[in-house]
Amino acid sequence: MSKYSSAVLVFLAITMSMCGKPQATSSLDSAAADKKNKNRNLLYFDATANFKRFSFQDSIRYYLVKSKDAGVTDVVVDVKPISGEVLYPSKIAPVMNEWAGFTKTEKFDLLTAFIQEAHQLGMTVHASTNIFVAGHNHFNRGPVYADPAKKNWQSLNYTPQGMTPITQIKTKYSAMVNPALPEVQQYELSILKELVTRYPKLDGVILDRVRYDGLESDFSQASRQAFEKHLGRPVAKFPADIYTYSKDEKPVRVPGPLFKQWVEWRAKVIYDFVYQARTELKKINPKLIFGDYTGSWYPTYYEVGVNWASKEYDPSATYDWATPTYKNYGYAEALDLYTTGSYYFEVEKKEAKNINVTTVNRTEAGQGKGTEDWYTVEGSAEMAMKITKGKVPVYAGVYVDQYKGHSEQFVKALKMCRAKSDGAMVFDIVHVINEGWWKELKRGLTE
């Protein structure tokens, strides 16, 4: 989600129809959707940024009490960061017991502690899991580094310099894997199922990084074969039929004849996984809140292979990268909760005129450098509500560190999230702690 990287549900019936694609219909009219899923305020607890702090059980309760007092209703505990390790006793994924030179010594189950302490305070607990990533490139750490059997899972990126494994691109901190590989999907599903089975009192799961690394991934032979199967015919020139690079000093992508079909296929890969994950997890715990996080920059989010809109929204009417059938792979209907990163310093749409594209902090996947009003908290939240069509509660989110030195803008952003969506999401508690912004957090979430 960043560089650091309730309980009544709207039941969705999953069926196999319409060209064999899984579709979802709600058993309730969307206007009568569960109101308890609205007016939430979610606070993230990042795994690595807070590893030492939450290796002590009394620290967990201390910060949960402070969060509750500040108006937080839901805590999101990051239990599977981008390193591909987990913060609970897994029999499938490697367990993180050490980070940044600190080794956990207290013998307690972190997620159990969060669930018990938060429930005593009347708070809801979601576990956040990073899906299609299995390594931290800045530390050469994670399954794609440590496990020879998983080395070939990593994304193969088509760059101006040629085909490059992502572990060799150290400007990227996330060692993303190829979502189209069946073995990758089954591995990630097995971890999710283990998590939900192990913690029956867990209220929800929020998926993160259910996406491709970017437009340049994945160009492995496995992806080519899967794409050809989707098309029903061979691709004569790969990857040139998808795109090429110009010969300029600063090469730019030049779309090929199959570019739009490639964009649609990638969205289908993610769509299919989201529905499968929902189905599998609901079998284990029908009351589980099935959630997802993505960035809010929908007009460029196709670059990471994700269509988080409702099927009722047709982007091809507005954007030239979308086919008329791209809308079939919108997965808003699959979700019980959706939170989006309205990660902009500018809060009101009228502030868009002040955007300086040479200085803005936009380093998230697929995030562009534009000055449209959806590059503001207000504009992005409005867009998210518009294109999800009321199919799922939406929580616009802020990245606290973007407001460093500007506490009033932080408060203003939180209030805007609540005004323009169903509540607010705050990433991350570490920044609130570092800035000492507990009073500001409370103002933003309660006033």
Automatic annotation (TrEMBL):
Gene3D superfamilies: Glycosidases. Residues 317-443 form the DUF4985 domain. InterPro entries: Divisome_Glycosyl_Hydrolase, DUF4985, GH, GHL10. Keywords: Signal. SUPFAM superfamilies: (Trans)glycosidases. Residues 1-20 form the signal peptide. It comes from the Bacteria. Residues 66-291 form the Glycosyl hydrolase-like domain. This is S-layer protein. It comes from Rufibacter radiotolerans.
